């Protein structure tokens, strides 16, 4: 005899099939009562990935799509739209949108290797997600970064296969003619760029004068200058594009993918998905609510739920829905639907370290802001820099010494002691790739951001891994974020080398001609121990969180397969940064646009066979 639950969903299915393709107006919804009974696809999260996937799926007018987003739209505040104000690369000008109502405002637990500091963990609670909060750098990693994903068991995810999707999302604008007239030799290759996508990428029309000194310093240190790093050769120094609309010099976000004119696309704002409803191994719908004490509502899904809640909330929703490590779920009284120990594991992030100080001349900043407001010119059209370097280990450190330190480690000895066996096996596979690439000239391990007189090293190939897990059965409680920053001493060694290399850059003739002095931490910090202490006290997140629902084989702690389908569940895919098994050496948004474009094709193709 069928259970009451099964009968309910059978009736729900029949009703849904009647209503599924009736014409209904595309609109922004605010209340559960406005939501249709069923949709072909329900997209959980209106951030970068969710908006891209929803856009591509709803291109077919016969396909109905609902996006559910906890946040709403921005009010186009200056600290959102103006590049220099909103990038937060210049702390003297404020933190931009981070820490505001558009941020989930979560904080990780105290980190032992950072002197028990807790690090704020920004994540977008807004239509557009992280593209509203980020620093707007629009670059890709090296070919080798993406080819690793194939080596980890994901055919079709190498750079060559991703490049068409990277280009599909992008609307590229070449350098402004005025910049060329000023003698800045910015090169690019049209073959690596798209012209018809919905996210703008452009070069700033203003170049900071110190950029020439940084370019020359790289030449002095024999760092190769890359013509166009978007083509897969990204280990060197290069000009970068920014996600800024050159028509009005304002931030370009994933909101460009939202098309409110489509009658088959609905967007519910101000509501949070609380659970994915699964019956007999198949997704039937989602449960959602406007707030913790409000009534829960449900909507049926006829084809698939696409989970795009982000690296921090995607594992939370999976665990609340009974998908995760059985031991952890049982401790909270949650019935296990699928025992997937990899859910919430393999968390990793890019972290940076400020060295030097960025100027704060209030008279000058007021004058330049007035110039921006009147003519859309000047430094406020930029992110605080135009040019940076992504360097392999052999450029900034003794690669032989670092390799020896890596070889001396047991590959998983610095993981948490309670790490599940499959997750441990997956990490050991990743560690082997990280170890091998220490000697590679084409794999960057550190980024060097050049902003005014500050040189900011950032770790882009971390060896440390953390976790994200639920602490209660309430979806309105923040998950426990334990990044475990610097838990592997190789990361600290890389930072020490990066700090010393930043000093080497300052000592070049090119930088000395403009009297660059290290004002922070200063010349008194000299010994290895002092530098390590400075690193531990100063590292912070680049908020490139990834990996908590990794695209890996299940025996390696994977959560999704190469088609982004969650193991053991029918009708559930994940499309966001949580699926990234190993971060590329790049700021994350351009990679995620490509992932989401590819994911949309995977979904559509699975129903056309």
From TrEMBL:
UniProt keyword Signal present: yes
Entry keywords, A to Z: FAD, Flavoprotein, Signal
Any one GO molecular-function label of the UniProt entry: oxidoreductase activity, acting on CH-OH group of donors
InterPro entries xref list: FAD/NAD-bd_sf (IPR036188), GMC_OxRdtase (IPR012132), GMC_OxRdtase_N (IPR000172), GMC_OxRtase_C (IPR007867)
Gene3D superfamilies on file: FAD/NAD(P)-binding domain, Glucose Oxidase, domain 3
Cofactors (names): FAD
Signal peptide (UniProt feature, chain positions): 1-20
Residues involved in FAD binding: 126, 134-137, 273
Domain Glucose-methanol-choline oxidoreductase N-terminal: 124-147, 310-324
Stated family: Belongs to the GMC oxidoreductase family.
Protein name, UniProt field: GMC oxidoreductase
Organism: Hyaloscypha bicolor E
